[in-house]
Amino acid sequence: MVRVKPFAAVRPPKEIVEEVAARPYDVLNSEEARAEASEKSLLHITRPEIDFEPMVDEHSSEAYGKAVENFRLWQQQGWLVQDSKPCYYIYAQTMDGKTQYGLVLCAHTDDYASGRIKKHELTRKDKEDDRMVHVRIQNANIEPVFFSYPDNAEIDRIVERYTAGEPEYDFTAEDGFGHRFWVISDDGDIERITRIFKDIPAFYVADGHHRTAAAARVGAEKREGNPSHTGDEEYNFFLAVAFPESQLTIIDYNRVVKDLGGLSPGEFLDALGEDFIVEKKGPEIYRPHHLHNFSMYLDGNWYSLEARPGRYDDSDPIGVLDVTILSDLVLDKILGIKDLRTDRRIDFVGGIRGLGELSRRVDSGEMAVAFALFPVSMKQIVDIADSGSIMPPKTTWFEPKLRSGLAIHKLG
Q1: Is the peptide bond preceding residue 86 cis, with omega within 30 degrees of 0?
Q2: Is the pTM of this model over 0.85?
């Protein structure tokens, strides 16, 4: 039911893969990208503003032009080389002793338009527009989107057969996460994978909603400009890494708030007591243990907040989410934060940074209070996507992130 195809990846020679591969564009700001980028790093293509002194705006015409120039240069230098035939690829990531195995493939934009590629987050037009410019000017998907799909035993067997052999790439990045990569070039295996996915009911966007939407928009744009369009052109497809649902790790995505809305810490605690059982835990980090249990850092102490029965709707795929409970009963009701996308009083902290980052930002005086949430489950994401509902912003954080530069897809 989903349409996939192999592609001839543009990728680095194995001898320099560690130098070229980089973290995704959206987990680094410009200064961090400049500090992290070595000579051959893909960051010169995904964050080209770092090549200017003084640094230019990442959305400027100068930055976009530099991205195109660098992509061309990396190919001229042999730092990125296109494979001779269309292939599928296996990308394995290892974090904390756990490995997940994804298939690197091209998905079809029609499946996004029809809803067979299912989303669970809203996108912002400005971010879509930025990613669309990058795809259009490069005529390529430089960075993949991150999909999940329902587990399939036959795909697992094919992956196991290849991963029993030597990988094409095998390295551990500076963050300690392992990355391995195999090439599936056998025509029989390629054909079989393509056919198996015709029986897979849907893809779920785990990470990369803006890149998915941008790729679909570029495909539609090119379709409109081609009177001989058939639907099989390369621009109808975009780059993804698809993982079985059972293998993925979702970690917490937490919140920090600048002020208590005019309340004193005591008044704020009293207000919380209406909807939560509040228990002071002291200065040592407290982590939520289950759904509807939150941890809070306030005034030098950690607290357990247990949502009282009747304050949430377990029959509603959105109402049952802890991000919904926190947003409705604390951020909106007590602190007056109505729109998580635009209110500058709130910020979001990925759980990969640890709960110590929450207390640090409060202790520094930058923030007044922090909240840690129990991670959502893959089942919750699937239920929400299948129902056509949308999660509140900043709900899921998948880790490890895909390394960019291991495979690039040209649209023509």
Answers
A1: no
A2: yes
